[in-house]
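WARN no homologs supplied; continuing
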Amino acid sequence: MSNLELAERQLQARTFGFRKALTRSKRWAASWRWMSGVLGRSALLLALLVLWEAAPRLGLVDVAFLPPFSEVLRAGWELAVTGQLYDHVEASLLRAISGFAIAVITFVPLGLAIGWYSGVAHALRQIIEVMRNTAPLALLPVFILLLGIGEVSKVAIVIYSCAWPLLLNTIAAVKQVDPLLIKSARTMGATPTQLFAKVILPAALPTIFVGVRLASAAAMLVLIASELVGAKAGLGYLIVYGQYNFLIPQMYFGVLSITAIGLLANTALETLERRFTRWRPAS
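OK structure emitted
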């Protein structure tokens, strides 16, 4: 091997090593930026948890009413080990998902019809205005009286609470579609079906998903309230059971579980929204 070939190989090896080191440094930089962003966004939450842990231990608040955060987590671990946590979460999720799914399947198409067809909107306007101004929790005793204290009344109240965010946002989404888009599609000879599928529905999806996310939050809120009455399982039952039996760490863990489920549901819906609205420019 000549000296020239040896020098070329050494240069190639150095170049490869430099590129590898550069790639590794870029990965480290990206990871550091991601961690810095997460820590920056979570700084206030972390400070709140530290305060929660420290305040009872320093005697700033009564431990009997606000146990340290670590004690709450320990109580949650005990519930998980015994299987009680799974039973409560399963009961609440089954009710919430059932009511939420039925509401989406029913009221999103209804909202599209009301927003697109003026005759349907005119026929249903009065009943919608009356019912949407009636608070779901005010109707909880009515649902229990008519449907009993079992699962049907709990799912029904979830459906009712989800109906109005879904319906009103879907109607608004259809009415806010740019008229120029509709006119352009009609000029190019689009049929009513093509106009709806290719123009109206895609343009309305972002606002519809706002209603879907609001409905998911309403579903958990109303469900927990309904589980405070006449339930034998569920996170709402866990909270009120902990309160009545002075199992305060379990009570707080029930509240944290509801918060975690709400955050996970919102993240899943945001991911689904991005998937269905990939045509939108990234914000």
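The mean pLDDT is 83.
OK
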